[in-house]
Amino acid sequence: MGIQQVLSTIRTNIRRKIIFVAMLRQYVSSVGNFSSQYGANTSTSYVIANIIGEPSSYPSYGDFIQSCVLRTYGKWWKSAPEALQPLDNLSQRYFSCDDFIEMHFDRKTYITGINIYETYNPGAIVRILAFDESASNSSHQWFVVWEIKGGCPPVTEQSARIFSPLIKPPPFPTRVICIEFNSSNVAYYTELDAVELVGKCDVNVDDISLAQCIEGLNIDSDYEKEMLLTPQDSSSFDNGCFDLLPGEVIFNILSYLPLNDICKLAQVSTLFYRHCYNPLLPQHQHLNLQPYWFILTKSSLDGFVTKCKRIRSLRLSWCGAHNDMLNSQSLLQIVQVPTLCRLDLSCCALTDELFKSIIPLCQNLTELDVSSTLKYLSCSSLQVIAILSKLVRLNLYNTAVDTTCAMSIVQMCQRLQHLNLGACFYIHDYNQVIDKASSNCPSIKSLDLWRAKSLTSTGINYLAQRSKHLLSLDLGWCSNIDSQDGCLIELLKCCNALKKLYLTANRSISEKELMAIAKHCPDLEQLDLLGNSSVTLAGVQRVLGCCRNMVFLDLSFCGKITDEHIYHLAMQHSKCSIKNSHTQ
Q1: 320 conformational bin, left if phi > 0, alpha if psi -120 to 50, beta if neither
Q2: Tens digit of pLDDT for each residue in 451-491?
Q3: pTM of the predicted model, to two decimals?
Q4: Nearest to 76 by CA among 211, 236, 184
Q5: Could you tell me which InterPro entries the record lists for this protein (predicted)?
């Protein structure tokens, strides 16, 4: 539609009724779904809920407990021993979101602007979407109002800012937006203070909405045009000269295309339709649907059934929160393919009944991620995981798993090498779980016990005695571990292959533990000592001098370490990123 036609349509509709439009500015009133948070569910510090309301810290820059903070940050998460290998290189190239937050506002408006108050390490935001609650078609519910394409230039300015991207206004009123983040774009935690939605609301006489003014403009989302995930019959199209190309050449070309392009190409001709349905294509063997979570429907899954006869990994992270796409017979058909060994259901809107139907069909799974499903899956449904005896990797971060359930799982899944039990607040006795895990899973290599408040020196001693192959251990915010009884020193002696060790906010760390790290863990690459007031410059220097592979060291809020110390340490150890969080 040309610009003259657009203007003509608007003028015609405006003549019908005089519409008075008011600008409305509003802040977040509640939070819907989100992928992770730094703070505890029972706390008010560093939690996602802090995004609610007006700014409280801006224009100050720094680390504030009243900020909204995600758990992930920087590039180190992706290089840690427990890091997952990407499903495929294409997904990483075209989609690079680690976290998201869904935000709700009090009143629907036709949004014209979004102001995001970033008060620490800005630059992680990569995509913003708006939700249409009145959309009848589930694939048209979300509208991309802004996104970064082709990479994100780093933000070097260390100051608070109001990020106001140039958005593409959605053609509907909304009160729900979703912001997606790529933690690799920032060197440390990014913190948000508030999000302001600016929009127009009609205050006219006869309930004539602003939508009537733009009626007939036929504005569509770019994603609705670009990502046609449901293939159509293409038998009527001519193959052209592509018939002359060997099948191997076409296969090789297709292997470089993102999934949405494969789906579009299937509609071009009979030849491409046949090749695009080849189950051996890497996009179908490693099916990553997370980048398209906001447009997927039941029919989308239907289109993949015949393609996924050799599927090896399936990623459905973030899917299903606003439609019933997961309640599909096609999903059950896909997951029961015997070659499927990796299933990612992180922050997935599953029901207990559906989860209990899926897991028994996946007897060959070696990797399962059900993290951040606390609001969806009950402990009783998670119990079924225990039948997956071939599991090597299991992520239960922020789930409803309790002590009994966790013990049952580690009792039966004895091949586990990577286990995440972080922020599982229904586990009231982590010591029992660690006792069982260390006894039954002798090959454990990485263990995430973030905010395991019931963990004590007893659990640490179990690890020291039995888990000598540990490469990564996260004991962040495990406040009941008292290292003064020597439990951590014994752990360091026995687990001397450690490459990552997080002792965040363990107030009992002393010079003895630092000397033990330097002596017994020469291969250490990542060390978090945030909030340890007894850490001294001499101890840090000893660690850096002995651990020559160190690439990340967090000394934030270590009272005896000054900014001047950090400066000199960074000059002497330029290959190591040394963090010193602060508040202005």
Answers
A1: left
A2: 999 999 999 999 999 999 999 999 999 999 999 899 999 99
A3: 0.89
A4: 184
A5: F-box_dom (IPR001810), FBXL15_LRR (IPR057207), Leu-rich_rpt_Cys-con_subtyp (IPR006553), LRR_dom_sf (IPR032675)
